[in-house]
């Protein structure tokens, strides 16, 4: 008999690069394949929607089941108890990532994640054949709206069902969803932002469409003049629009800047995987993800923003004007808070936005309060259960 071939170890990574226009999945799958070919360990990417990813991570502590790694937006660092995350030791990322970037995946002064990509912010994309230059304000959009609508072109598009997309409207009225560690949504600023969104959609100046599909399709087809969308869509739009595409700052509202959140996307380690027998393989894969080879794949293949500080600095020097604008706009954003309370904020805002365009601001505010009360109660109950379980261990 010949020598028995040793079976490769297997490690699963959950992620949410699931939209048809999110080309990031191409690079993640290639990186996993490259690593698997070069090492005695097979990395298996498993894709799902963002809601499912959050739900799965939040069940790890209760079930004891979960992937060894998950690639997540940085606010999911705060799920560290629900997901039973391993703390991250400095040897994994030493000298590669800036302190500011590392801070995006810290919770209560402890590192629970390793940033792989930066950005995750919203920008203005506009069609240069429709707008000669970026509309700087909503007054600019309103001034051109009548002529555009006559030509069957919607002035502006956004996915207004997404809580993350609503944030720039809120910040323009001076709001922010978190204050003193608690939700800060039952405010005059939220009400003003709701009223503004309804007013603009009723006038036909904004159309709300699914952000992963129809919004992008109509924008590429020249049926919408400008859209709010994430930097992660830049590669898809650039491929499909070429010289028609331009990038700008989110339009101001009544003279006030619209400020997007930003975050990182990074690896967390559910079910205490960094203390498991797979620890050495996991750390090896993380270092591979942060290597020049892989970080350049993200930057060059799908135009994402690398977390490796040296590669990021190189990218800023050689990028196209559009890409430089995307990088520049990141500096104007506010970091997404890393707090368990953000779960309640996203859930409650999403519920309110679903009501907003159908039934108006008043009903949306009622839904917001009811959803907020419910989600806070559920979160506190879950946290109490986990704390009790940890005390008995």
TrEMBL record:
<keyword id="KW-0813">Transport</keyword>
<keyword id="KW-0175">Coiled coil</keyword>
<comment type="similarity">
    <text>Belongs to the bacterial solute-binding protein 1 family.</text>
</comment>
<feature type="coiled-coil region">
    <location>
        <begin position="365"/>
        <end position="392"/>
    </location>
</feature>
<dbReference type="InterPro" id="IPR006059">
    <property type="entry name" value="SBP"/>
</dbReference>
<protein>
    <submittedName>
        <fullName>Maltose/maltodextrin-binding periplasmic protein</fullName>
    </submittedName>
</protein>
<dbReference type="Pfam" id="PF13416">
    <property type="entry name" value="SBP_bac_8"/>
</dbReference>
<keyword id="KW-0732">Signal</keyword>
């Amino acid at each position: 008999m010949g020598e028995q071939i040793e079976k490769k170890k297997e490690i699963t990574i959950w992620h949410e690069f699931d939209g048809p226009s999110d080309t990031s999945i191409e690079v993640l799958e290639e990186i996993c394949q490259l690593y698997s070919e070069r090492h005695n360990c097979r990395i298996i990417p498993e894709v799902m929607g963002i809601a499912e990813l959050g739900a799965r991570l939040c069940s790890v502590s209760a079930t004891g089941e979960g992937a060894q790694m998950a690639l997540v937006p940085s606010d999911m660092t705060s799920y560290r108890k629900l997901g039973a995350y391993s703390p991250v030791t400095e040897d994994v990322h030493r000298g590669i990532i800036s302190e500011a970037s590392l801070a995006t995946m810290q919770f209560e002064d402890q590192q629970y994640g390793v940033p792989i990509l930066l950005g995750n912010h919203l920008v203005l994309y506009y069609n240069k054949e429709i707008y000669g230059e970026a509309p700087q304000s909503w007054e600019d959009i309103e001034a051109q709206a009548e002529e555009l609508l006559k030509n069957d072109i919607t002035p502006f598009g956004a996915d207004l069902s997404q809580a993350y997309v609503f944030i720039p409207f809120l910040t323009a009225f001076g709001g922010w969803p978190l204050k003193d560690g608690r939700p800060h949504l039952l405010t005059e600023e939220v009400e003003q932002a709701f009223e503004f969104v309804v007013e603009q959609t009723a006038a036909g100046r904004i159309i709300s469409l699914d952000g992963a599909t129809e919004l992008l399709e109509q924008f590429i087809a020249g049926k919408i003049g400008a859209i709010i969308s994430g930097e992660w869509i830049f590669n898809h739009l650039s491929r499909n629009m070429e010289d028609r595409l331009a990038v700008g700052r989110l339009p101001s509202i009544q003279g006030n800047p619209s400020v997007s959140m930003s975050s990182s996307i990074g690896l967390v380690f559910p079910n205490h995987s960094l203390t498991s027998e797979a620890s050495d393989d996991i750390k090896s894969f993380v270092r591979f993800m942060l290597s020049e080879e892989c970080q350049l794949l993200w930057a060059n293949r799908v135009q994402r923003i690398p977390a490796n500080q040296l590669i990021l600095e190189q990218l800023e020097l050689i990028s196209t004007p559009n890409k430089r604008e995307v990088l520049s706009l990141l500096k104007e954003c506010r970091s997404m808070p890393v707090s368990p309370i953000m779960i309640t904020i996203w859930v409650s805002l999403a519920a309110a936005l679903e009501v907003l365009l159908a039934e108006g601001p008043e009903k949306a505010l009622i839904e917001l309060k009811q959803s907020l009360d419910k989600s806070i109660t559920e979160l506190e109950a879950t946290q109490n259960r986990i704390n009790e379980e940890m005390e008995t261990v």
